[in-house]
Amino acid sequence: MRNTQNDPFVVVIVGAGPRGTGVLERLLANAAELPPTRPLSIELVDPYPPGAGRVWRAEQSPLMWMNATAENVTMFPDETVTLEGPLRTGPSLSEWAAADGACTDVTCTTFATRQVQSRYLRWVFDKIVAERPANVSVRVHATRAAQIEGGARTRQRVWLEDRDEPLTADVVILTMGHLDAVPGKDHRLLADFADRHGLRYLPCAYSADADLSMFRPGEDVLMRGMGAAFIDLMVLLTEGRGGEYVEREDGRLRYVPSGREPRLHVGSRRGVPYRSKISYRLAGDPAPLPRFFSAPEVDARFAGRDRIDFWADLWPLMAKEIAYGYYHELFTAHPDRVAIPWEEFAAAYAGLDWDGEPMCALIEASVPAEADRLDFAALDRPLRGLDLPCSDELQEHLRDHIRADIDRRSDRRHSADLGAFLALLSVYGQMPLLKCVAGLPVRSRVEDLNGWWQSFFEYFGSGSPGTRTRQLLALAEAGVVRFVGAGMCVEIDEEKGVYRASGANTPDTVEASALIEARLPDADLRTCTEPLLRSMYRRGDAAEHTLAGDDGYVHRTGLLHVSPEDFRVLSRNGVPHPRRFALGPFTNIRQFATFARPRTNAPSFRQNDRLAREVLRFLGAREHAPQQVQEHGLRSAQEHVLRPAHEHGRGYAGGGRAA
């Protein structure tokens, strides 16, 4: 256990999926600039294939697709990324596919299968390992980490599930990605009800791993959730059971059932599926972004204010930025649908507040057709106020809604929507850079910023490929999918032994013998099934990130609490461990994306670089003055982390997830 001058430094990375691979790439790239004084051994621990990890492994249905086009997926930083370390470039998914003879069907605009993405990720992993510095070794352990031991001044012992001896490490980095969770109280009640009455219930789970064999042909099945998880489950329960799609003369799809599908009754808070992916490119020039919502300018605007309000202060600026992208494309690409030149409109627009009457008057006078004006309220809640006499009319209304969405997202006449989407991405990218967010009341950060805004972003920008939406419409027209409406509510009927669902748009209800929670499990340190995190939490070596407001409002996020400055894991007492780091969606560093879009200065690359350099600096510093450096590291981390975490209304809250 004692470390000698001849032993290599050892870094253990728990989780070898895309995030672990990204951290590995930055460690190897930075090791050439910050070379350790001894050889470096990097040990990766993951029961799933390195590079791909669990979610992107090859062993899953070929019907599972990515939710981004191949040109918008990369594992390599480019010259737009603000790195402290050296830049190492590489191909995007589409560029890699173009050079791979077996992937000739993957183009820039292809939504590749997850199996193809798995091959790309494994290629990336093998490439960066092959190009590692001569004094660095990399080894993969195809198992799960069960426990970690070790103090601040001692090497760490990482126990593996199928090994008698632990891995001994100078530093441990946790990059496990999305986690499974033990069902909570409400879900257990629904599962117990199913057991008592011989029904079927599926709690939140990852679609590719869910056992769907329990759901019977023709059975009425309720599904709560209409996002990405719903689409995956829909595919597996229909086409995955032998159903087929036939192209109609009008270009629409017709679904031919196999007879083995259940009947799916779906609903959510909005009651509509996420907006379909846009299939066209801008018709005009890109808008210069950010224009009204850059982090430095927003922070300067609210400098000196202890409190800000999301709806009164932040949202008007965010909305003005998104609408600027929309109208820039509308005016410059479709001048026949506006009443004045862009330069005149832009000059007036810049001087007006988004939420004032003068702005409304400017837009109404400049954009004659109401259908060409951006209406956030109607876009966000398209079923609000809709009251129909029966479910059949609701089905017709929702089918019309989906047809209109398909047409709008595939017709370049509506390219202003793409302008809005690109501005939405700009706002999303600026959000984690804002210092003034600390002035939002905690309740608002939870309910407005991480709640409504994150939900709206995913609904507008993280929808399914157009083909999937066309398939959903075909299933609805075939009666395989039926819609419950907005505000879906599920009750249990002990007397009849059924689940019963209702929505806000019709008085009709539907009874079913099965219920699926069509959502991914929420990250929760207390209930996750990852043995390493559970053991750390029980011993107090890890803490749940909690936010507390001046009004007594307390929110337990369920996320692992790490320092936003250097990603060190905090204990229950708020002390950062100098040898343990964590990064990913299970931590309070919430601004992440599964994969980066090229040429966007993606946060994941910057995070990986900061973490890698912090690890290498720690290893180099402890070589020369280990005790003093470690003590200084503890003090400085406490100064940066503990003070803001314990001030009311000042706890760290990051952004959220992008697809």
UniProtKB/TrEMBL annotation:
FAD-dependent urate hydroxylase HpyO/Asp monooxygenase CreE-like FAD/NAD(P)-binding domain span: 12-178
InterPro entries in alphabetical order: FAD/NAD-bd_sf, HpyO/CreE_NAD-binding, L-asp_N-monooxygenase_NS-form
Signal peptide start and end residues: none
Region feature Disordered, mapped onto this chain: 626-659
Ranges of biased composition (kind: Basic and acidic residues): 632-650
PANTHER family: BLR0577 PROTEIN
Protein name: Adenylate cyclase
